[in-house]
Amino acid sequence: MRITIADIAKKANVSKMTVSRVINGRGYVAPKTAEKIKKIIDELGYQPNLIARSLVSKSTKIIGVIIPKVEHLFLDNYIAQILSGITDEALKKDYRIILIPVEYSDKSEDKYIKIVKNRLLDGMILLKTIIDDPGIAPLSETQFPFVLVNHKRYSKKINFVDSKNIRGAELAVEHLYSKGYRKIACIAGSLHETNGKDRLRGYLKKLEDLGLEKRDEWIVFGEFRKSVAYHECEKLFKAKILPDAVFCADDYSAIALIEKIKERKLRVPEDIGVVGFDDIELAEYVKPSLTTIRQPLIELGISAAKILFDLIEETRKPPIHKLLNVELIQREST
Amino acid sequence: MRITIADIAKKANVSKMTVSRVINGRGYVAPKTAEKIKKIIDELGYQPNLIARSLVSKSTKIIGVIIPKVEHLFLDNYIAQILSGITDEALKKDYRIILIPVEYSDKSEDKYIKIVKNRLLDGMILLKTIIDDPGIAPLSETQFPFVLVNHKRYSKKINFVDSKNIRGAELAVEHLYSKGYRKIACIAGSLHETNGKDRLRGYLKKLEDLGLEKRDEWIVFGEFRKSVAYHECEKLFKAKILPDAVFCADDYSAIALIEKIKERKLRVPEDIGVVGFDDIELAEYVKPSLTTIRQPLIELGISAAKILFDLIEETRKPPIHKLLNVELIQREST
DNA sequence: CTGAAAGCGCTAACAT
DNA sequence: ATGTTAGCGCTTTCAG
Fold first, then answer.
1. Nearest chain A CA: its distance from B294 CA (Å)
2. Is residue A1 over pLDDT 70?
3. Domain at A62-163+298-324, CATH from 3.40.50.1000, 3.40.50.2300, 2.40.40.10, 3.40.640.10
4. Is the dihedral of CA B71, B75, B77, B80 positive or negative?
5. Cβ of residue B41 closer than 8 Å to a chain A Cβ
6. Which residue has its C-alpha nearest to nucleotide C4's C1'?
7. What local confidence, expressed as pLDDT, does residue B78 receive?
8. Residue B198: left (phi > 0), alpha (psi -120 to 50), or beta?
């Protein structure tokens, strides 16, 4: 049999309420009775039933991390880093994290609202949401606390933490330029995500600023996926005018590209310079090591969690929009 | 105002019970009433309150993954892979995963029991538990479903999934031997974990079988931590007789060792052969790429989750002890 | 096929 | 300083 507050109360000859007061340290209880009750709690090894407590308190101290329902998600170092930041912060605030995989292709407007209504969460952090996700607007109409990560969306009711993606792409192109490259191609990321779009925009903008040539055949779409990038970057080698450098919207794509370049017996950085984006763990280890735009992924997670907790505890109100700085990490690939 | 089952009932002119029956698809309800109720549910956007449901059903469809309370845990590719396996399987069975960090140094006997009593979980998977963890025995005395991962403990009340660590270590030494190495050292893992102990045992056993020399100065302790291994492996270079190969109980230690070897201007594999253990993502990318004993980490997670779900659904009973095969992956470091 | 009553374990609000 | 009542939203049990 499970020990409940009632068992404690009976044994201590008090009411359940007094026990509850002792457990929560709220309200007045005579030191003596408190002492007695505490002793019995220890003896019986009582632990509060969180479910019962949540049913009345309406709070669970659990936050949900919404992730796309994809196999082997944690093998993506990008996700692992962000999640690491979130858990680190949750630890400090004594919140638990529950992982909620949602179907990427689910186009329903209530996909997130359903989760909210289940009442299991105090708040949620959404990872890798797409631009036209129909679930976000309805969610923002509720009062439920949530934060988007690496997704930029200016709205009075939406909170997000993102990196300066446009700036990052500009930095990358600038760097390639300073290294003497002039024919700069791009493996773009997913245009369904704001960061994918922003990085492409930054690339194009900087080409213009520097008066560099823009060519459609120099832009391919890797969708932030290594296998896609590996396949698509093939097109760059079939261009009428061969690029001498490539800005990749993420490191996995850059790694795929380097593999392809090697297969073609070309050299990095001599024949083709490569810059990535993110600074995942591998970036430092691939050969040649990868010059990349570092975005502070762990910080992104920490920041999102902090904002979420502020929202939950109502110490801050929406909208909270935060952009973190990026920096160029020069390695061997340029 | 939140929509509850009572609202639906009132609007449909039925009792709460009938609504409940429709929602759960249990018991008889006239097709017509069912239809009507379903329609109202849709209209009002009703979603069941999981908390309330759990309070009575005693089941939450949530499993806990117990992890040591360590910063940046997910950056450890070993953890990330196992977790990936667990989530993949949980997805299929429609269970949610909650992360429960526990203090590594907590020596209390009720550290896990407390969590169980909170009634938030249907079962749990424990990662990186130590041999003398005082919390495990008491937990096993309850009927609560749980599985240890990469921890071998034969007991009628304990379930685990582990790799064949002893065999793996033997494979590694055999391989080094076949490559002509004769002075084989070892960076051992944490002896607080069964897999650390087993790998050391396999190493020693195989040295004996092959009639190779054993020297205390050829064994250092890396505790499964790169920074520790990096520091400790220094001792190997101060040995009276220098080893010509090193079996490392984990890949991070092997990577640390390779860094150290390079700093000393020695060559891998010519001067020193190196074998790792785990086959983390990096193993393939470091230079030289790492020969290692691959343990199926994702499978380990999948397997643990499968067993746990069987335990929860009572289709199997403890004890369930499972050992997965390991294999040698030859790369450039030997 | 449907409903009424009771209760899961806890806390808020109001007594005393 | 402590107790009583009521109720969170749901399901189980038993009765019709």
1. 16
2. no
3. 3.40.50.2300
4. positive
5. no
6. B15
7. 94
8. alpha
